[in-house]
Design goal:
eight-stranded mixed beta sheet, 25% strand, 2 domains, alpha/beta, 375 residues, Rossmann fold
Length: 375
């Protein structure tokens, strides 16, 4: 089920429409060397101590304990607690040794959910500013994910990874609890070149394996850039024939599992696609994926592709933004108008909720008014 694959789905009712889903599992395509980097690295933990963490604070302590006791000896580390404010355990990261480990374990013992709101972006800015210029830095956030303006966080992470030291800082996140914002948690991992995991408060027995896996991921040196070759089909945006989502394929981690979608406004006839993964170390892995066609043709891939396009539009990273920003004289107000029109069109066509579309279920058979829940 987790194998890399390419699934092509013709639309059951619209013969001129097709959708392609390319699912990529890098660890299934090759065997990564999951080892600590030869050069020392810096690991900074961002611990959410906002008021909403009240029933999750013990789970936070447990996870932090697993992380700290599993760090390699050739790293430096630090802890930043955040809420409405943020505070660092030390002014700068310290080497991992028994003395500093004991101090950190004592520090997390006193954690309380007593720091107000959840201003994650402020804490991220502070942490990125204090990272060592001489080391590759791994930022691991532990949070219940209850924040506003996730798009601003994603934008800052993308900006951080395209700065003076491209890709030298990666972002990982462990979501804690049953009400985690998957949009936030998965977005941080996706845009940050790292990994995202979610664990429930009552699954303490499953924590250790998840935490060790994330730490192994943080210590895996390479990040991968992905290129997908889809035969002789038109490229994205050409005559409106193809839309790719995500338009900008995020960097993959060796532990990443993700999908890239292609929406075609024409019939598609291809037998295979090629995935080319290039690591920051220079290693290149190529895989030819044969096209699979679902036995029962519905429109599941179309729905997932349309949702991915909507996510691109909402984050300002879509094919439409790239096309409009390439034209002279277009300001942000016009771009927003075009984006809204496209978002409404796709949301209505595929019955998907988004920033611009919502739906109400109406029961015509009786006049009862029932409670509803926004998901």
């Amino acid at each position: 089920m987790l194998a890399s694959r390419a699934t092509l789905e013709p639309h059951p009712k619209l013969p001129s429409h097709s959708a392609l889903m390319v699912s990529i599992n890098l660890r299934e395509m090759y065997t990564p060397d999951v080892v600590s980097p030869k050069s020392p690295s810096e690991i900074i933990f961002l611990a959410d101590r906002s008021g909403s963490m009240g029933d999750k604070i013990e789970a936070l302590k447990t996870a932090m304990g697993f992380f700290l006791k599993s760090l390699p000896s050739n790293c430096s580390f630090n802890i930043c607690c955040f809420g409405s404010i943020h505070t660092l355990m030390w002014p700068e990261s310290r080497s991992y040794n028994q003395e500093n480990l004991d101090e950190a374990i004592s520090y997390i013992t006193d954690f309380r959910a007593d720091m107000g709101g959840t201003k994650l972006l402020w804490a991220l800015r502070e942490v990125v500013k204090m990272t060592s210029p001489a080391l590759n830095s791994q930022v691991i956030t532990l949070t219940d994910g209850e924040v506003w303006k996730a798009t601003d966080i994603f934008e800052f992470i993308r900006y951080s990874r395209s700065g003076l030291k491209p890709d030298s800082t990666r972002f990982f996140v462990l979501g804690i609890g049953d009400a985690v914002s998957h949009h936030l948690v998965e977005g941080i991992g996706r845009h940050g070149g790292g990994l995202a995991e979610v664990v429930s408060v009552d699954s303490a027995g499953e924590w250790k394996g998840r935490v060790i896996r994330m730490l192994e991921a943080a210590l895996t040196p390479s990040t991968w850039k992905i290129d997908i070759k889809v035969g002789d089909l038109p490229e994205e945006g050409q005559h409106g024939v193809c839309i790719q989502a995500p338009h900008h394929i995020p960097d993959f981690h060796a532990f990443s599992k993700s999908s890239v979608y292609f929406l075609y406004s024409r019939e598609v006839k291809i037998e295979s696609i090629k995935v080319i993964a290039t690591a920051t170390s220079g290693e290149i892995v190529t895989a030819d994926l044969p096209i699979q066609r679902p036995e029962n043709i519905r429109n599941c891939v179309h729905f997932m592709a349309a949702k991915s396009v909507l996510n691109d539009l909402e984050s300002g990273q879509s094919w439409l933004h790239a096309a409009i920003r390439g034209e002279e004289g277009k300001d942000e107000v016009e771009i927003e108008q075009f984006t809204r029109a496209e978002g409404e069109k796709i949301g209505i066509e595929w019955s998907l909720s988004s920033r611009w579309t919502s739906f109400v279920v109406v029961d015509d058979r009786n006049s009862l008014e029932n409670a509803s829940r926004w998901y």
